[in-house]
Amino acid sequence: MLRWIRQQLGFDPPHQSETRTVYVANRFPQHGHYIPQRFADNRIISSKYTIWNFVPKNLFEQFRRIANFYFLIIFLVQLMIDTPTSPVTSGLPLFFVITVTAIKQGYEDWLRHKADNEVNGAPVFVVRSGSLVQTRSKNIRVGDIVRVAKDETFPADLVLLSSDRADGTCHITTASLDGETNLKTHFSVAETSVCQSVSQLEALQAVVECQQPEADLYRFVGRITVTQHGEEIVRPLGPENLLLRGARLKNTKEIFGVAVYTGMESKMALNYKCKSQKRSAVEKSMNTFLIIYLGILLFEAVLSTILKYAWQAEDKWDEPFYNQKTEQERNSSPILQFISDFLAFLVLYNFIIPISLYVTVEMQKFLGSFFIGWDLDLYHEESDQKAQVNTSDLNEELGQISEELLFLKAVSLCHTVQISYDQPDCLVAAGDPFSHANGFSNHMEYYASSPDEKALVEAAKRIGVAFTGSSGDTMEIKTFGKSEKYKLLHVLEFDADRRRMSVILQTPSGGKVLFTKGAESAILPFTTSGEIEKTRLHVDEFALKGLRTLVVACRHFSPEEYIDVDRRLNSARTALQQREERLQEAFSYIERDLQLLGATGVEDKLQDKVQETIEALRLAGIKVWVLTGDKHETAVSVSLSCGHFHRTMNILELLQQRSDNECAEQLRRLARRIKEDHVIQHGLVVDGASLSLALREHEKLFMEVCKNCSAVLCCRMAPLQKAKVVRLIKTSPEKPITLAIGDGANDVSMIQEAHVGIGIMGKEGRQAVRNSDYAIARFKFLAKLLLVHGHFYYIRIATLVQYFFYKNVCFITPQFLYQFFCLFSQQTLYDSVYLTLYNICFTSLPILVYSLFEQLVHPHVLQNKPGLYRDISKNSLLSFRTFLYWTLLGFCHAFVFFFGSYILMGEDTTLMGNGQMFGNWTFGTLVFTVMVITVTLKLALETHFWTWMNHFVTWGSIAFYFIFSLFYGGIIWPFLHTQDMYFVFVQLLSSGSAWFAIIIIVITCLFPDVVKKVFYRHLQPTSTQKSQSLSAPQAQTLSCMESLCCYQHGQSGCSRLARFLEQMTGQCQASGNHCHASNNRWGRHRRPQTVIMNLDELSPPLGFKNLGCSPDCYIT
């Protein structure tokens, strides 16, 4: 019971040791002192809440928001003391906001629960009590032997025991984990591979010892001890023996495996961990504005309290004849009375804080994010991939960013390539396992985890040395038609530190040979023979042509040398402690005294329109940094080919620095050179080693050099260095907004570090996509994502935030002014129903619709004129100056509302023809009516892109207010304590003077605003305003905006919803194939921008590593 409670509360009992012991088939020791370890069950929990903790946990999260917590305090104050307004006025809006948010989050979590139940309830087969038993996935326990059939997914992390193949291997695809569709071969140890029946498995006596769960998909350290005939045999276990949950079995009839990690301890589940919360600059500005308004509220409350007591210093106002004090009031403490009055004024003015702002912003971001996925311009038809939004909280942030024969054999054998044939189950065909290579198959296709490996093997095949398949530990190649078989003895896996991979093979003649390939810096220093200097020149020549280079070498072992090598490898691989370190030592010992064979070059083809996209970003004011692992020459060549560097640019280099002093001196030389040649554009190239030195002691000088360069290229970068560069740019004095874009697993840390991370759906897996905030299919889509979506989202959210503060200033300032005319008696100006519904009903829909559909400029104009992005740079629309303008405008309009109505009724309240007089509720209703009309029309003046939905909510909100007021004031409501508003609104509308006052006051408020807009548009127009005159005629000639349009060929389930929305908004013709639609875009930010992009995709589409913007770049 206690364990269940801990699981419900989200606590996991800590592991007691660094390793875990798993008894296969749960065959525990029979002695009485053994206490089984406790492991997690196999349930997957991706949900955030349970039925028990939803209410407290959700409330806790919501009340961490300052506005919600503030209104909670106000509501409690209203319950505890006598306040001028009902607790309903604060409680109802708070309840509405909390409820709407809770329903949204609860529904999303219910969907997660539903998906979890489908996974946890999936049928699986396990070996129990000597038979194969069907059960549910959630019932699998650590130690259970699980059977998985072809094309099924693995329900837990399993150590492979056996397969239907004689050699105990199987093929899997990990597309759901890392996006790689290639086949991977996994192995079982020889002692368990023979157990292919349930009875044999039931009799198996084996124990698996392995590390405790960790998130790294590619790391597993363990060993298996098999007891045969009383003898214990120990075999090492590594990643090649572990079948990960979520992977799928391919080309193998069935396998048996023992569960070692289950449920939330599986590697797939551990990768669910939440990323650090990113907050947009708009949200930070919003919180700052909220604090300022909180200060205004406190000032008004304190001032009103002081003025009340100053006024009551005169006896005639302290206790007038019509309002005598009670004995309790006379004897009460002055301090407590002062506090009570202060709290009462705080309650009276509390609506200056817009509680509904947060829920409106949430709805705008959530609904607006769908427009990116619906944008046909961001849809890639060949791969059937559309843009996806993983984090809608950052929408507006997008608007803020800155050759020998042995050599050919080595190429054909030193790899991890798999082969797929036309026929199913081809690799286990009867007879010769290499029958397909001997002519029985007309088609075979290579699969590899690295596109480079696949390209090299295919190239060697075209030359005449073809890899034709593998069976167990035997690999076969055909050398100009002659078949040769090699036995695979060891694989020395690639890692980022060594930057090479190797295989040890037994040749047909019985000799032992090592083949290795890797970066030239990782191979050439260890070579002792071969055409070293000649090959070095060839590598440099390949790099200058923009090719991705590899160097290939070999080493022949004598029998004695191989025995030593085999012993070292087995010892390191069976170690449970410090296995990685011991393996590195063994690899270093083996991969030396190499004979150089040759070098390869693979073209890293760029995607379409990479150069145009980078140029558009530059014109938009974004400085681009390229962060790549390629060598210097390759990186420079690719930078030139994609337009990152120009041919006329002066290229500065910070390379191969070996000491802090040497690095500092070079930086000072570069700084002087930039000052001397200030007219010329400069580009900086820096390698990873020099960057480490520069960041250690000379960070300020390095950033000064980078700031004065038009483009920066960082080569030979490790993944962690990429993240450090992003952090360096983020924390620079200019505080730019950074955007990182990449497509590989080595880009994840950089993507998570940047303000906005974008993943490209390339061929290096989908880890970057899964960890990004947004994902696009091609690099060229970045231009529209930033220049159009970013622009639109920013102007929408910026106007939404400031308009909310403006209309609340208009709302509460007349209440403050009214106190001067009622002796600060805390009398409310508005009826409590109006107080409650102002933000919820009367003024909420127009701004929400505006924030979804507004377009200052036509999307095609924004794409064709990237310079328009600069108009929203540095968070210009949410600057303090703009905020002050909206605030002062609210105060001015509020003064006009109040004193305009006062002038009308202050001296003569007989506004009816029959001499009937109006009272204070009529006065307050007049002010409220003028206010609702004015703030709604003010938003109409700010709207540039009108749809029928804008018209409906704008004029409909005003009409709804009138209809509601007539209905509310025309009936005596029995559940209300007072009937203050009965027939008030009807009488108000019966007065011609009141109608005249409404029209005059509204015109008085809005006419200066119209004059200002006309004046500035004609005398000081911005670039955006100049482009607006071009966008209208262009829009008329274009048949479709092609943004919100549905997919024409049914590629997406949301297409019908998209088209329905377009038809509703009057932007899409019902029967045509094109739409007159508004593209929902993104907004801008307050600080300089930096974009960090990774363009390192092989294969046809991608071709670059990480592009980044420097601190002073402005995504405008």
UniProtKB/TrEMBL annotation:
Cofactor dependence: Mg(2+)
EC number(s) per entry: 7.6.2.1
InterPro entries: ATPase_P-typ_cyto_dom_N, ATPase_P-typ_TM_dom_sf, ATPase_P-typ_transduc_dom_A_sf, ATPase_P-type_domA, HAD-like_sf, HAD_sf, P-type_ATPase_IV, P-type_ATPase_N
Subcellular location: Early endosome; Endoplasmic reticulum; Golgi apparatus, trans-Golgi network; Membrane
Positions of the P-type ATPase C-terminal domain: 769-1022
Residue intervals of the P-type ATPase A domain: 124-185
One GO cellular component, as annotated: recycling endosome membrane
Chain ranges passing through the membrane: 66-81, 87-103, 288-311, 342-361, 785-806, 833-853, 883-905, 917-940, 952-976, 982-1007
Keywords: ATP-binding, Endoplasmic reticulum, Endosome, Golgi apparatus, Lipid transport, Magnesium, Membrane, Metal-binding, Nucleotide-binding, Translocase, Transmembrane, Transmembrane helix, Transport
Binding residues annotated for ATP, in chain numbering: K409, E453, F494, K517, R548, T628, G629, D630, R716, K722, N746, D747
Catalyzed reactions: a 1,2-diacyl-sn-glycero-3-phospho-L-serine(out) + ATP + H2O = a 1,2-diacyl-sn-glycero-3-phospho-L-serine(in) + ADP + phosphate + H(+); ATP + H2O + phospholipidSide 1 = ADP + phosphate + phospholipidSide 2; a 1,2-diacyl-sn-glycero-3-phosphoethanolamine(out) + ATP + H2O = a 1,2-diacyl-sn-glycero-3-phosphoethanolamine(in) + ADP + phosphate + H(+)
Binding site for Mg(2+): D743, D747
Subunit structure: Component of a P4-ATPase flippase complex which consists of a catalytic alpha subunit ATP11B and an accessory beta subunit TMEM30A.
Similarity comment: family membership: Belongs to the cation transport ATPase (P-type) (TC 3.A.3) family. Type IV subfamily.
NCBIfam families per the UniProt record, alphabetical: ATPase-Plipid (TIGR01652), ATPase_P-type (TIGR01494)
PANTHER family the record matches: PHOSPHOLIPID-TRANSPORTING ATPASE IF, PROBABLE PHOSPHOLIPID-TRANSPORTING ATPASE
Free-text function comment from the UniProt entry: Catalytic component of a P4-ATPase flippase complex which catalyzes the hydrolysis of ATP coupled to the transport of aminophospholipids, phosphatidylserines (PS) and phosphatidylethanolamines (PE), from the outer to the inner leaflet of intracellular membranes. May contribute to the maintenance of membrane lipid asymmetry in endosome compartment.
Protein name (database record): Phospholipid-transporting ATPase
